[in-house]
Specification:
The complex is a heterotrimer of chains A (415), B (561) and C (369). Chain A is α/β, with parallel strands linked by helices and 415 residues long. Chain A has 15 helices and 9 strands. The chains are: A alpha/beta (415), B alpha/beta (561), C alpha/beta (369).
């Protein structure tokens, strides 16, 4: 299956390289403030630090003074951006222009939710930003100042840091490449009037800037219009960013393969796989924070799965003991089969697990493989329909062919 | 309410009796709670058997019925009717298959008995969770939608329309008549003028039981035979929509002509005075057979089979109308030379051979040729060709009339999707069988007539149209009752997040999205209970009546015990 | 004087012997208790039906992976168990189960409820890095000394209801000094007595050591005051609540871990509380900025109102919170005051009906005035 790397759709060739005196965060906030002032948007959707605390929350703001405590790239992902935007737009769009600035995995979650009708993108401009990763939520809470410091150091070197979440260490989709449609999948596109297919509208590149400059580039026609309105010329070469981004992406992709392979070997097979969930308390936190899990009531929480005590006792007798709460594996495997095709590897599930189960990495192993077999990358293309909802006659012929071969063999035997 | 289950095991002649130890099962079952009576009977589907069951239901005051016999495909309906007549809700009944699934496939009697017992227990446990679903009755809608206002559509509408049966005739252009309207006339021996068409169109317009909707197209179709819901859109104003209900649909959308520009060797569109058959018909009809310079032509070439190789089939009617053209030219223009370039001559009807001879006598030249190349040469047109003996030839003419292949009408693909009926490899609508069932489609209630299913002449179109009418008249009788499926799916609103996954997998278009509430809704009249939506909903917000999770679980649990 | 089944073995061994007896004799068809899931300290509640598995039982393990009241409720949600089943659970777990039974979310029929005088449990985080194994000896030491182990859940450190109500049997732990030599099981009910017949051990008459109990209760009361002060919640003001819940992700893990929160679809997760664009518009215009997801504090206050009167202070909510909000301290505090107002103790008496569902003509007259 060809990788997204080689088939970019309208990859931006030029952009605006802005100097970031006062740091990257300030440069980005200045850009956002200016765009609010010039009425490119009426409101911003951005993480803001709660006054006098170390927590970040998503805020939809009109009041520019709130920007003082805003941070487009906080050290942690508290609420997944996709989930937050879904809460905001699930029941329709507000009649103002909103710009939402998020990490690539959050943008991809937004796009997946858009395809599942849980997000409305009318009046929303999506701004993506290169992501160095995020810190584990529990580590950050126990020691916010230290974790914030380590996080900020990443912007200069973009070097690996063991303090990062394990899922971020192996993330190769930290930049624009994962937000662009693949040409080879154009035939599977759904007609959407007036909507460009790339995931984000504007991208802010940080890699290769050494913490001194940011690379602002339009991705969709909406993005182009906005930069024009802001009178930001997009004539600069993006080479510095492109080269560094590809270098880092290749490195991380290799690392991902290696680490996931190692993990797979550790957990492969029924016995070892079950052991992964030895400590699972069935709290279902992972499902609740997952942006893709949009069901109002999860099937695995429903009364449908409740049975009489007689049945439970019989089961307990057959196995000599029955673990409660029940259906731990059923829940995880069931959730996997329901959402793994859209899994964007954001890792909020791992952050939320009270028992430190490496659930994001486990799901990644499956997600990578399943998505690859459908040639599908969740969230890169607004028009690419999720595989399970799109019928293609010529698909997985190899599964069919086995059956055909068997039938004809039988027929010839009976002849 | 106390439950009284009656369990009856059918011996099914020797089929079950000889392969399963029924008495053993009777003994094993009698100890189960809630079972009022367990009996065996020689042949339950016989009249005596049915009477026996009815008496049992009444006398034992049964609340639930389990019959262990043959496959539900055979007699589920039979026994459900027995229940109904005896006053027991037919859905509080379960037919357990111990013939095809036990007696007929397990040779060891002990094993077969054991499995049969299991299945019957499973059925008993299941039936206890059944709900007394209520049958629904719909009166069938006798009205008919005819798509296409050409000759086939017009014929059908006149045959079907009556005070008890309304006909909706939908035509995408602004006038009725279709392609026949563009003709100069029929074949000479069939009568030349088209007043017959004008008469028919007048009849249609005056008939108060026919609603003519011109400049309109079918936008959406859902439902089933006797109960279709159609949305018709106006071509003039996108917002104008009309919703109608009919019981049957006839697709009479006619044909299009192959565009000779796809075969540039014929010079259509690039060389002046190269026209296609319909354009020539227009010339005849307006009595102006003239070249672009206003003068009548001296030499005319009529080229058959344009696009035949590309399309892969013969369009049947072109040879005859080319003869018509040749005759016309000879009759109207005094010293015109006419050449007919053909690859085969298709003259199937009883009068055709004679007609051919007649036209030939008028001095029309027939050249059997292929590899035709038409080029411009000065003020003339040069035709280069090869005869069947491989001899090369060349001819200079001043007008060329092409007979292009008959191809499917525009929007055939779109309509096929809307109606859910198949197309064949040539792109025409596919009839069930070319010879034995030429007007039916796999969807009950949707018929095709005329060129919609392939090239044919007016005679055949009319015949097919009448055939489709015949089918409709015999089975869509006003007042006939329909029983839509009761075992349909239902969506629990509170759990629905409006992701519309169920909509994308519903083959029957039975699910719609309520924009205001933001939830999906099942149209119970159209739902066929296939269960696709149930499987597709990740949160389990959709349930299938009579196949709920508790019911299925209970059944399987018992069967595996 | 209460009857006690005295087994001359350490309390852990003794209780295991007793459970073995229950299963072997066929008096119960299964036992709900904590069982080792692996050798690294992972434990979970199990319904054990076979002696082989009973060998892995660790009934007194100081960890609560899930509130057992929730477990028993799930077991008997559709109907009461027809076979007799024993369950070993902590006082707050029994109390939650009873609160659920009052709401028809389970049935107590045919259960043999065995509890213990509770020294508390470790927070789930200790189980994560295998710390629990190291902390176990310190835990038992503190208990023997009658002290509060500093590593247990804050709600356990401050719990005053560590003597179980409604248990058929109570294993004496915190008020006994000789738990390494003796296992004393108090037989509180006729049922308890019946099931103890022919059990290994002697039936004696003994009283619970009320002095020890009172002392421990006082220590915990003091600890409560201390912890409330540390958290700054001794006077629970609105602005305190805002600050404490500022990190809240609205993940609702607390409500799903809570045994009392039994609703199939929580009101706060249903469509009713999903903001429509008009609401967002209005709030945005009023305040210039709006937090998304909205209604963070509203959810918590709403939940307090819905379940506070039955809160047993088990502490599950704090343990599952991804951002370490001390949910249980606040909820049990509010719960306590609500319960005092109605003079209601959740889970103490199955006959005592839930205040919100009971109408008394003479009540809170002062508000009416």
């Amino acid at each position: 299956m060809s990788t997204v790397q080689n088939e970019f759709f309208k990859k931006p060739k030029k952009g605006a390289v802005l100097h970031a005196e006062g740091g990257i965060h300030k440069a980005i906030l200045d850009f956002l403030r200016k765009s609010l002032e010039k009425k490119c948007f009426d409101a911003l959707f951005i993480p803001v630090k709660v006054h006098d605390t170390d927590s970040y929350v998503w805020v939809l703001l009109k009041d520019k003074s709130l920007l003082n405590e805003a941070n487009p790239l906080p050290p942690v992902i508290s609420v997944q951006g996709g989930r937050a935007l879904s809460t905001l737009t699930k029941h329709g769009e507000m009649n103002l222009q909103i710009a939402a600035i998020m990490r690539p995995c959050e943008i991809r979650a937004v796009i997946e939710l858009f395809k599942l009708k849980q997000v409305s993108l009318n009046n929303i401009t999506l701004i993506s930003i290169d992501c160095p990763g995020a810190m584990p939520l529990s580590d950050y809470i126990s020691n916010p100042k230290e974790m914030a410091k380590r996080f900020n150091n990443l912007f200069e070197t973009w070097e690996e840091n063991e303090s990062l979440r394990p899922i971020c260490i192996i993330c190769h989709r930290f930049s624009l490449s994962s937000l662009l449609p693949s040409i080879s999948r154009q035939s599977a596109s759904v007609e959407l009037e007036g909507i460009d297919s790339p995931a984000s509208d504007i991208h802010i590149g940080l890699v290769g800037g050494n913490g001194e400059k940011i690379f602002l580039m339009p991705v969709s026609s909406k993005g182009e219009e906005i930069l024009e309105k802001l009178e930001i010329a997009t004539e600069d070469s993006l080479e510095d960013w492109e080269i560094k981004e590809k270098e880092l992406r290749d490195k991380k992709e290799n690392k991902r393969k290696k680490i996931l392979q190692e993990l797979k070997a550790k957990i492969e097979g029924p016995k070892k796989f079950v052991a992964v969930f030895d400590q699972c308390i069935n709290c279902h936190n992972c499902m609740r924070v997952c942006p893709i899990c949009y069901c109002r009531q999860c099937y695995f929480d429903s009364k449908t799965l409740r049975l009489s005590p007689e049945v439970y006792l019989t089961r307990a007798k057959e196995r000599k003991s029955l673990r409660f709460p029940l259906d731990t594996l059923l829940f995880h495997l069931g959730r996997m089969s329901h959402m793994v095709l859209s899994c964007v590897s954001c890792g909020v599930c791992e952050d939320a697990c009270p028992m430190n189960i490496p659930i994001a990495q486990v799901f990644c192993i499956v997600a990578d493989q399943v998505q690859k077999s459908f040639g599908y990358v969740p969230g890169r293309d607004r028009r690419e329909p999720p595989p399970l909802r799109f019928f293609q006659e010529d698909e997985f012929q190899e599964v069919e062919m086995q059956y055909k071969k068997t039938i004809s063999r039988e027929e010839t035997q009976n002849a | 309410m106390s439950k009284k289950i009656g369990v009856y095991i059918c011996e099914c002649g020797p089929n079950i009796r000889d392969r399963i130890n029924i008495d053993e099962i009777l003994e094993n079952l009698s100890s189960i709670e809630d079972i009022k009576v367990v009996k065996k009977y020689p042949l339950l589907c016989s009249n005596e058997g049915k009477k026996f069951l009815a008496d049992e239901i009444k006398n034992e005051e049964l609340t639930h019925l389990v019959i262990a016999a043959c496959s539900p495909k055979e007699h589920e309906i039979t026994f459900m009717n027995v229940c109904e007549k005896a006053g027991l809700n037919p859905y509080l009944f379960q037919l357990v298959n111990i013939r095809e699934q036990c007696a007929w496939i397990i040779s060891n009697k002990e094993e077969a008995t054991r499995m049969a017992t299991k299945y019957i227990r499973a059925g008993i446990n299941r039936v206890l969770l059944h709900k007394p679903l209520q049958k629904k009755e719909l009166e069938c809608n006798p009205n008919v939608l005819i798509i296409g206002g050409g000759i086939a559509g017009i014929e059908a509408s006149l045959s079907l329309a009556s005070p008890e049966r309304k006909v909706y005739l939908v035509e995408k252009t602004s006038v009725l008549g279709g392609k026949v309207r563009k003709l100069s006339g029929l074949l000479p021996h069939q009568g030349m003028d088209l007043t017959f068409l004008q008469k028919k169109i007048k009849e249609v317009e005056n008939n108060e039981n026919i609603v003519v909707l011109t400049s309109s197209e079918v936008e959406n179709v859902r439902g089933f035979f006797g109960n279709f819901e159609i949305v018709i859109k106006s071509n003039r104003n996108d917002l104008e929509q009309k919703e109608i209900k009919v019981g049957a649909i006839i697709v009479a959308t006619g044909f299009s002509l192959f565009d000779p520009k796809e075969t540039p060797q014929y010079g259509y569109g690039t060389i002046e005075n190269v026209v296609n058959a319909l354009e020539f018909e227009e010339m005849i009809a307006s009595d102006k057979i003239l070249l672009k310079n206003g003068k009548p032509p001296k030499t005319v070439a009529l080229i058959h089979c344009v696009g035949r190789k590309e399309k892969g089939y013969c369009s049947k009617v072109c040879c005859l109308y080319s003869l018509k053209f040749a005759q016309f030219l000879k009759d109207k223009l005094s010293d015109v030379n006419v050449f007919e370039f053909y690859s085969d001559l298709c003259l199937p009807h009883k009068s055709d051979q004679d007609y051919f001879e007649e036209v030939k006598k008028k001095g029309v030249n027939f050249i059997k040729a292929n590899e035709i190349q038409i080029k411009k040469s000065n003020s003339n047109i040069n035709i280069e060709y090869k005869t069947i003996t491989e001899k090369k030839g060349s001819l200079s003419v001043d007008m060329v009339v092409l007979s292009p292949a008959i191809i499917p009408a525009e929007n055939t693909e779109k309509l096929a999707k809307i109606l859910n009926i198949p197309l064949d490899e040539t792109g025409f609508f596919k009839e069930i069988h070319e010879k034995l069932d030429p007007v039916s489609t796999p969807i009950e209630g949707i018929y095709i007539a005329g060129c919609a299913s392939g090239p044919k002449n007016i005679l055949e179109s009319v015949i097919q149209s009448q055939a489709a009418c015949g089918k409709i008249l015999s089975c869509l009788i006003p007042g006939k009752k329909l029983e839509p499926e009761v075992r349909v799916s239902e969506i629990v609103e509170e759990f629905c997040t409006g992701c519309q996954t169920c909509l994308s997998v519903c083959f029957y278009s039975a699910i719609s999205f309520d924009e205001f509430k933001g939830v999906s809704v099942v149209n119970e009249a159209i739902c066929r209970g296939c269960g696709n939506c149930v499987g597709s909903c990740p949160s389990g917000a959709i349930r299938l009546k009579h196949f709920t999770y508790p019911q299925l679980y209970r059944e399987v649990l018992e069967a595996l015990r | 004087m209460p009857k006690v089944l005295k087994i001359k073995k350490g309390v852990e061994e003794g209780i295991n012997d007793f459970l073995k007896f229950l299963l072997e004799s066929g008096k119960v068809k299964g036992i709900f208790t904590l069982k080792k899931t692996n050798e690294n300290g992972a434990v979970s509640y199990s319904l054990i039906t076979h002696l082989d598995e009973l060998k892995k039982a660790v009934p007194l393990f100081p960890l609560m992976p899930v509130n057992a009241g929730k477990v028993l409720s799930a077991f008997t949600l559709l109907e009461a168990t027809k076979d007799t089943v024993a369950a070993v659970l902590r006082p707050c777990e029994i109390r939650s189960f009873i609160e659920l039974v009052k709401r028809f979310q389970g049935s107590m029929e045919n259960f043999l409820l065995i509890s213990l005088t509770c020294g508390g449990v470790f927070p789930l985080k200790s189980a994560v890095n295998g710390e629990v194994k190291k902390l176990l000896p310190i835990y038992w030491e503190s208990i023997k000394k009658g002290n509060i182990s500093s590593n247990i859940r804050p709600t356990c450190q401050t719990c005053e209801h560590f003597i179980p109500y409604q248990a058929d049997m109570t294993i004496a732990i915190v008020e006994k000094k000789n738990t390494d030599k003796e296992c004393n099981i108090f037989l509180n009910t006729d049922k308890g007595e019946n099931f103890a017949k022919e059990a290994p051990g002697d039936i004696v008459f003994e009283e619970m050591d009320t002095n020890e109990i009172t002392e421990l209760k006082n220590k915990r009361k003091t600890q409560k005051k201390k912890l409330y002060e540390e958290l700054g919640i001794e006077k629970l003001e609105f602005k305190t609540l805002i600050k404490i819940f500022s990190a809240c992700l609205s993940c609702h893990a607390c409500s799903h871990a809570c045994p009392i929160c039994y609703c199939t679809l929580c009101d706060f997760e249903s469509k009713i509380f999903e903001y429509k664009p008009s609401s967002y518009n209005m709030e945005l215009n009023q305040k210039g900025g709006i937090r998304v997801p909205p209604g963070t504090l509203f959810f918590h206050i709403g939940r307090m109102v819905h379940m506070g009167v039955s809160c047993v202070g088990c502490g599950m909510c704090s343990d599952v919170c991804p951002v370490n909000i001390p949910v249980s301290m606040i909820f049990s505090m509010v719960g306590d005051s609500l319960q005092k107002m109605f003079e209601y103790l959740p889970g103490k008496d199955i006959e005592e009906s839930i205040p919100f569902g009971t109408f008394k003509t003479e009540e809170f007259a002062e508000i009416g005035e």
